[in-house]
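Key result, reporting period 2: structure in, sequence out.
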């Protein structure tokens, strides 16, 4: 039997995302609390004589299957290459601010590393795939700084649930960066380590996503998503993730999140809505 490995590619959520500066090469300096949800894509990899990628799942149509796919680009980071037949089950919307491609790439690296017994590529090579890839390889609550390369584990997170809502518009990350009015915003403040859930959410409410207003200017429907989420009973906070268009509503329990998902989905047929627990 050929050896097979499976890896989960969880949705990435930027609970806050501060743009604090810009490097000479044009890349932006970020300060973000990044968490992961118990919904996501899945990678299955089987050792084979050549490299191949098959994509299935509800969002399969939204990603390329050719060499541009981040999963195949990730596989090329191993030297010598590891040939495998890879299946990507795509459940998350692509180019949506929830790390789809980066999380898929990270899961592919984990699966190939398990199959081959080889170490994961180093941080510089991961960053070359995308700014979110080092965070997605860590796949635990963390503070992300620099342009995405500086990762610090986040010590404690209260139990939280989210509803992820994507209005099915594609937002270009460089276009959002380009439209920013300020690039020198203050960094995150750091909450007390033993903050209870209310204190944590109050703290989070005064942090920001500095890309949100630029993304809303490009795609005003994002404002409608944020309004729909914040009007839902039990929603403690509504904010955009990454450069959009996916937004999250934060909830204190699974039932409220599931009810909110059902309510928003029933009123907005074309939107992608998904409730999930935040992984600790
Ligand atoms: O690395 P990723 O594919 O997510 O980035 C997409 C684009 O967003 C980059 O090519 C760059 O133009 C911009 N970007 C940036 N600063 C970052 C990350 C991305 O300006 N820290």
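The corresponding designed sequence is given below.
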């Amino acid at each position: 039997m050929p050896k097979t490995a499976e890896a989960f590619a969880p949705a990435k959520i930027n609970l806050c995302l501060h743009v604090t500066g810009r490097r000479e090469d044009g890349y932006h300096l970020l300060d973000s609390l990044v968490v992961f949800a118990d919904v996501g894509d899945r990678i299955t990899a089987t050792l084979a004589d050549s490299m191949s990628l098959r994509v299935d799942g509800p969002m399969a149509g939204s990603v390329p299957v050719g060499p541009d796919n981040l999963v195949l680009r990730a596989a090329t980071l191993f030297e010598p290459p590891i040939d495998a037949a890879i299946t990507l089950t795509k459940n998350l919307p692509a180019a949506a601010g929830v790390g789809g491609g980066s999380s898929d790439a990270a899961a592919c690296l984990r699966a190939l590393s398990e199959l081959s017994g080889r170490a994961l590529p180093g941080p510089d090579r991961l960053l070359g795939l995308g700014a979110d890839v080092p965070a997605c390889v860590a796949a635990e609550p963390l503070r992300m700084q620099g342009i995405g390369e500086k990762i610090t584990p986040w010590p404690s997170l209260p139990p939280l649930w989210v509803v992820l809502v994507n209005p099915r518009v594609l937002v270009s990350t460089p276009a959002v960066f380009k439209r920013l009015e300020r690039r020198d915003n203050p960094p995150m403040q750091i909450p007390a380590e033993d903050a209870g859930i209310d204190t944590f959410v109050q703290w989070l409410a005064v942090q920001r996503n500095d890309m949100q207003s630029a993304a809303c200017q490009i795609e005003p429907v994002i404002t409608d998503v944020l309004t729909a989420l914040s009007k839902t009973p039990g929603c403690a906070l509504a904010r955009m993730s990454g450069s959009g268009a996916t937004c999250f509503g934060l909830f204190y329990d699974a039932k409220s999140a599931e009810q909110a998902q059902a309510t928003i989905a029933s009123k907005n047929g074309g939107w992608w809505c998904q409730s999930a627990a935040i992984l600790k």
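The chain has a mean pLDDT of 96. Residues 100-116 form the longest helix (17 residues). This case is discussed further under Risks and Mitigation.
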